[in-house]
Automatic annotation (TrEMBL), chains A, B:
PANTHER family noted in UniProt: MALONIC SEMIALDEHYDE REDUCTASE RUTE-RELATED
Name of the protein described by the UniProt record: Nitroreductase
Membrane spanning stretches: none
GO molecular function, one term: oxidoreductase activity
Xref: NCBIfam families: PRK05365.1 (NF003768)
Highest rank taxon of the organism: Bacteria
SUPFAM superfamilies xrefs: FMN-dependent nitroreductase-like
Residue intervals of the Nitroreductase domain: 30-190
Pfam family, any one: Nitroreductase
Amino acid sequence: MTTDSTVLDGLDFPTSGLAVPDDVADLLFRQARTVGAFTPEEVTDEQLAAVYDLVRWGPTALNTVPLRLLVVRTPEARARLAAHMNESNRERVLAAPVSLVLAADPGFHAHLPVLAPHMAALADALEPQPEQREQMARTSALLQVGYLIVGLRAAGLDVGPMSGMDAHGIDAEFFAESGWRSLLVVNVGRRDGVGTPHPRAARLDYDQVARTV
Amino acid sequence: MTTDSTVLDGLDFPTSGLAVPDDVADLLFRQARTVGAFTPEEVTDEQLAAVYDLVRWGPTALNTVPLRLLVVRTPEARARLAAHMNESNRERVLAAPVSLVLAADPGFHAHLPVLAPHMAALADALEPQPEQREQMARTSALLQVGYLIVGLRAAGLDVGPMSGMDAHGIDAEFFAESGWRSLLVVNVGRRDGVGTPHPRAARLDYDQVARTV
């Protein structure tokens, strides 16, 4: 395992072609699995905040950072969320230690004077363009969902992302005031080791997805 | 630095709340910066393939893995790409060691019999629904762009993501046959250490982006 400061200098390339230790690559990607059943262990707000504090540094267009999180904890809130999930996902939301509704905020422009001071004028230009703001928010927030899933795993947590849901229903249920737009629901916890995980699904090879010009 | 197997067991929580070493958290997020100027050092196909091999394990809806990469290397191809970038991004594309056009493939369903054998029938159901396929492809491919940016950094590379471009122009220029839809262009290389980086832009705090119910 690589443990010296050359990791940060990007000078260290083991045979895997990576600059991080193998067990980190395993934790974040290679051994990580989508999880459906969790232990009852609690996931605290402090853990979620630590993950967010890490991944908020990931790049977004114009530094808009439009991802928002609804942390669903109480039995009442779980039931409200489960009612808008596809049937196969309902029990998972009710049983998970915590569920996150990950959403895009079309009102991100209100923060631009702080987030992108040199483009503060853009906030005014975007104000009368709600559709463009929603599109911008969705695009960058989805990048941030990618960072967040990696970040949750970097905190030793397991995730179960789900897109089988009535997004408009969730928006009406929880975001009528904020105007947030739900993208994905992610259950978070520690995987229940009971039972054998099903075999891992295949992925495409680099040669199948990349072309060089 | 944490180097033992408890990292993988998720049992190791230093004060930062993370299960990865601090220098990894720095490399992937906290010290990583969007880079505009790179050294001339080459980025090889082997490096890019190693990154893809890592991040392809990240979750996508129904395991559709719809992200595609156009690796732009030759001077001729760079010029064709630069012509569709916003003016402020043209010189960056011409100067970078390599530029990746990251795209979504609405034809992902052709791979479903391999990627999701238990849902092979879905491929036929999606065939006559190009708009739904494009929407599905964009959503999951953007998650994968998030994974890929983290993965490039995990390989010790620096990235310069750019969305200031004529996406339709790029699609017509490069993807008329494949039907891929460009999402983002990312320059990849090693940051040129010359000059002082500008101060880091602010981010929102957890309390600004999260609500609990």
